[in-house]
Design goal:
With about 90 residues, the chain is α+β, with helices and mostly antiparallel strands. It has a domain at about 30-93: Rossmann fold. Helix content is about 45%, strand content about 15%. Strand 1, helix 2 (about 40-50) and strand 2 form a beta-alpha-beta unit. It starts with 5 loop residues before the first helix and ends in a 7-residue tail after the last helix. Keywords: Oxidoreductase, Signal.
Length: about 90
């Protein structure tokens, strides 16, 4: 039985994600998309659709700018973490 240290496993997964998300030549310039009320339920659904390529096309990278009011910052940080965890290849920032 092989036991992997969790730090080693994390680094390995990070490396694989980096390889999968590496830019492809002749790739379109990323567009900037601003989503207001980004911590809300409707925006939550829309953000995922944008990030996976359903809105602007499967080859259009995006840079997401998520805005909401100050009391919603905790929820918004959770949304940002979920989008990051998905490792969607079109999301550039």
């Amino acid at each position: 039985m092989i036991l992997l240290d969790w730090k080693l496993l994390y680094r390995l997964l990070h490396f694989v994600c980096h390889l999968l998300n590496s830019p492809v030549q002749n790739e379109a310039e990323p567009i900037r998309v601003v989503v207001t009320g980004a911590a809300g339920q409707i925006a939550y659904s829309l953000i995922y659709q944008i990030a996976k390529g359903d809105v602007f096309g499967p080859n259009q990278p995006v840079i997401l700018h998520l805005l909401d009011i100050t009391p919603m910052m905790g929820v918004l940080q959770g949304v940002v973490m979920e989008i990051s965890d998905c490792a969607l290849p079109l999301v550039r920032g």
